[in-house]
Amino acid sequence: MHSALLKQACYVAGQWVTAHDGATDPVINPSTGQIIAQVPRMGREMTLAAIDAAQQAQQQWKQTTAKARSVILRRWYALMMEHIDDLATIMTTEQGKPFVEAKGEITYAASFVEWFAEEAKRAYGEVIPSHKTDARILASREPMGVVGAITPWNFPAAMITRKCAPAFAAGCGVVLKPAPDTPLCALALAVLAEEAGIPAGLFNVVTGDAQAIGGALTDSKTVKKISFTGSTAVGKLLMAQSAATVKKLSLELGGNAPFIVCDDADLDAAIEGIMIAKFRNAGQTCVCANRIYVHDAVYDAFTEKLVARVQALKVGDGFAPEVQIGPLINAAAVAKVQSHIDDALAKGARLAYGEPQPAGSFLFPPQVLVEMTDTMRIANEETFGPVAALFRFNDDADVIARANATDSGLAAYAYTRSLQRAFRFSEGLEYGMVGINEGLISTEVAPFGGIKESGLGREGGRQGLDDYLETKYTLLGGL
Fold this sequence. Notes:
Elements: E1 10-12, E2 15-17, E3 24-28, E4 35-40, H1 44-61, H2 66-82, H3 84-95, H4 99-119, E5 126-128, E6 136-143, E7 146-150, H5 158-170, E8 174-177, H6 183-196, E9 203-205, H7 210-219, E10 223-229, H8 232-242, E11 248-252, E12 257-261, H9 267-279, E13 289-295, H10 299-311, H11 331-346, E14 350-353, E15 367-372, H12 377-380, E16 387-393, H13 396-404, E17 411-415, H14 419-428, E18 433-436, E19 455-456, H15 463-466, E20 469-476
Parallel strand pairs: 7-8, 7-10, 8-9, 10-11, 12-13, 12-17, 13-16, 15-16, 17-18
Antiparallel strand pairs: 1-2, 3-4, 5-6, 6-20, 11-19, 14-15
Helix pairs in contact: 1-7, 2-4, 2-5, 2-6, 3-4, 3-6, 4-5, 9-10
C-alpha cells in the first residue's frame, strides 16, 4: 500500500496537524478487533480554524473559471483510480467490507468526481424576458459558500465525494467531519486532493469530538450549508441546530425500503436483485431492502430460491478469498440486528435459514426470516444487517399501502413483468427513488435522495450541483 495515503493527522488549511494536547481516538478493524491507527481528537477550536481556512480559500476558488476547477477535479478522479487498490485496502481494513466490494466503492466514489468535473461547466444562468423595454433580467448561479459535510461509516469514500465534488465544482470550500469509525479513507482522499491541486484550505478534514465539531459547524455564520448522511435522529438535531443561522441543508437520512415481488415477477431476477439490495455491505446500506413483500402465489418458491443463494454466501474477513459478507461495524450494530431477529421470532416469525452469531465477533451470518408481520420491529425500524425478512401479500393496493406506512421515504423496489404494475408501483410508492426490476439503483448520473423523514435535497445527477449554488436575480435598468 502507498504509505503516504495512510495519515493519522487532520488536514486543515493545507497542513497536517495533530491535537494540541495529543489526544487521539483509535480506529479499529472490525474483522479482527485490533487497533490499526490513532487519529486526532479535535474539537471546536480546530473546527473554527478549518472554517476560517475554507472561507479564505473559497474567496479565491470561486473566482477561478469552471474549466480550471474541472481540470483539477479530473486530476483528483485520475489519482483515485490510480490508487484504487491502496484506497480499497484502507477501506476494508477500517470498515470491513470485502476487498472486491471496496474496490467497487472507490470506483463509485471516483465517478462523482468525474461527473461533477463536467457539471462544473454547466452551472447555467438565464436571461428572462423583461417586463420593461429599457431593462434586462438576469438570473445567475453563484457558489453557496463554505459547506460543512458530515459523512457516515458505511460508504466512507463515496459519501465524501458525493458531497465534496459538487461543492468544489460549484466554487465552495468544505470542512469535512468523517465518521469516527472510518476516518482513514477521508484522510487518504485529502492526500490525493492536495496532489491533484485542490488549493490549501479549500478542503479540510477534522476528526474527533462529534458534538463539538458538529456544534461548531452549525453555529458558524460562515458555514452556509450542512450536508449530512446518517441517521434520522442526528439529521433532525442538525436541522434544529442550523435553524438559528438559516442554513441550507442536504440530509440523506435513514430508510426502511420495501422490496415487492409480484406473482408475475421473474423470480430469478428478483433473487439477483435482493442479493444486491439486501446483502451488499452486509446489509449496512441506507437503501437496503428491509421489508421483502412476496406475493402469496410465489412465496414458497421465492423462499426456497433465496435460501439456496443465502446458504452459499461466504462470511469472513474482507481480505479472505471469495468472502462476500464482512463484519458489522461494531458491537452496537451486532446487538441491534440480533434484537430485531429475537423480536421477530418471539412474535411468530420462523427462521428459514441462519446460523448463530459467533460470540465476541462482529461477523454476522446472513439470515432469512419468514412469516413476518407488520407488528414486528423489522417492519418499523431499519435493521442495517444481513437479515432478509419475508412478508406475504395478495393485493397490489394493499402492499403499496403497507409499504408506505412508514415515516421513511428513501428507496423502494418492485419486481413485475407487467408494464401497468410497473407504473402503478413507481407512482404509488412514496419514496424518493424506486427501482423497478433493479436491485442496484445508485449511480452518479441520477439524483439520489429521499422524501418524508428520509431527508432533503438530492445528491448526484445534474441536481446534485444545484444544492451548492444560489440563484441571484439582477435587474439591469436604464438601457
